[in-house]
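Session log. Operator J.P. requested a structure for one protein chain; no other inputs attached. Running the standard single-chain path with token output.
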Amino acid sequence: MQNLRFLLFSTVALATLGNPVWADEAAIARGAYLVSVVGCGDCHTPGYFLGEPDFSRALGGSEVGFEIPGLGTFYGPNLTPDVETGLGGWTEAEIVAAFTTGVRPDGRALAPAMPWMGYANFTPEDASAIAAFLKSLPPVSNKVPGPFGPEDVPTAFVMRVIPPGG
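Structure written below.
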């Protein structure tokens, strides 16, 4: 009888409240997993390219930029929900659109080093889970340098991408 009451209460609660809390937690956990396996932290975590990732600021933006000849130097931006320096002003839909189409909400294209073409193949559920995970992170206040055009002088460490024969 107690199981029946629990089942009835659960059904009424779910119908009344919409999505259960555990669904959001499951999506965030899925997003955390996906972010880890696709390597977002590599380009977006301070210290990663210097051999000492600062996981207390995970996904808070890199201080190492990629110079791409003829295009400029690009730093992995802050993916945390910090309003001033990260994705705090972006909706989950805008985050999904950016990493699956290569275009930011303001219309600017993402840096060429961002492998959005591969991320365009995420299922809608997985893409939403990634956005939910990013929005769930503690905000990290970290304004990354740049971007810098091909004639600009970067203000922080740079990894140079040199094409063959260059």
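Operator note: The radius of gyration is 19 Å.
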